[in-house]
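Lab notes, practical 5.
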Amino acid sequence: MRLLFSLLALILLASCAESDLPNPTGKGTIRAINAIKASPEVAFRIEERVIDALKYKVVSASPRFDDFEYPFNFDARLAGKLEPQRIASKVQKIDADGDYTFVLTGAIATPDVTVWQYDKRVFADTDSVTQARFANLAASQNSIDFYFAAPGVSPTAGAAIGTITYGDVLPPQDFPAGSYVITITPPGDPATILYQSTSIAYAPRTANIIPVFDGNEQDLAPYNVRVFPEQGGVSNLPDVRYAPTIRFIQTSIDLPPADIYDDEALTSLVLTEHKFADVSGDITTGTGDTTYRYTPTGNPGAILFEQEFEPTVGAHKQLIVMGSGSERTALIYQPDRESTSTLAKLRVFQGSSNHDILDVYFVAAGIPITEEVPRLSLPYKILSEVFTMPAGDYDMYVTPRQDKTIVAGPVSIDLALGDTIEILLLDTVDPATAAISVVPPL
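Output from the prediction step:
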């Protein structure tokens, strides 16, 4: 009987506690945008629950939450701190069918948090329009004009859909669904084009946030526009006026110095006398697929190697030649050059064919590796993920897998905040050793 009364008391207590809670009347949509250039990743949280991690120019997922008041928190790893720090908080009431975009601007240690609040757009099944909200998140431009027009229509005085100051967003506007080109100019100056997109089709019954950002090291152009559908996702719209690029890296020790052509007739010379361990600068390329052909320098009559290449509009790419003879291959990838103000970033390519797997050490200058653990273990032909390290002076060593025998190093690696460094591990004429080569900055 005592157990029965105890259970009844617990049930009564639970029902009373539950009745004290407010009842939601609906849900609102929330998201966040990181508009702080050179920012590290920012954790976007509702209370302490992580919603997403945001790099610069990135929008979070767009979850829906009950129409209550919540604290929204932002955490980031700051310079000299081992653990993420709370950099901002914002208490916000969420209304049913509201749409809330939290925008981070300013400095990473003390950012400003602005909330763009609108009602969620509800389309009828028969609607044939698309909705857009245009925003200026380019800190270098205090004010800009946005044009949203059919392909082939040039900007003219009075035709801008709005003038936007930095950090602001235009109210939602409806447009007939179809293809549009975005053009951005200084206020009242349609002849001076700051940015222009390619033609993009916008589907009916879609709602998008379309901000412009300052470009960074990843971009070819000074400005970058992105389309953030309200339901989530992103489309990158680089400036169509800037051609993509390719950078050639040669890690095949037995490949003779080569000229590189981008046409079958071997008349369009792209790069001359490309030798082992050489790294070219960025070379502009067309937007269509091509094949790069390597021939002995000064002798286009013989092809040493050829590689198909597919450029990415608005992006840099790098092509590493590796291996030897009939086993010679290439790795094509998009480099990570984006500077981060609070840390240094590194990436290592294992191009030494004489070693199946190499361990890579980064230690404080003058410290032996005897008791150290390798930072990386890289098989041949593998490009590491991008990893971060605090600023400082390091010695880099390379050894065989699980072996403290040094085959390369020490090489001094001085890291400053904001550095983005790529490192190549290469063969030498002595198969028992390897070489460390830092890719030169552009």
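Observations recorded by the TA: The chain has four domains: 28-120, 122-242, 245-329, 344-438. The domain at 28-120 is CATH 2.60.40 (Immunoglobulin-like).
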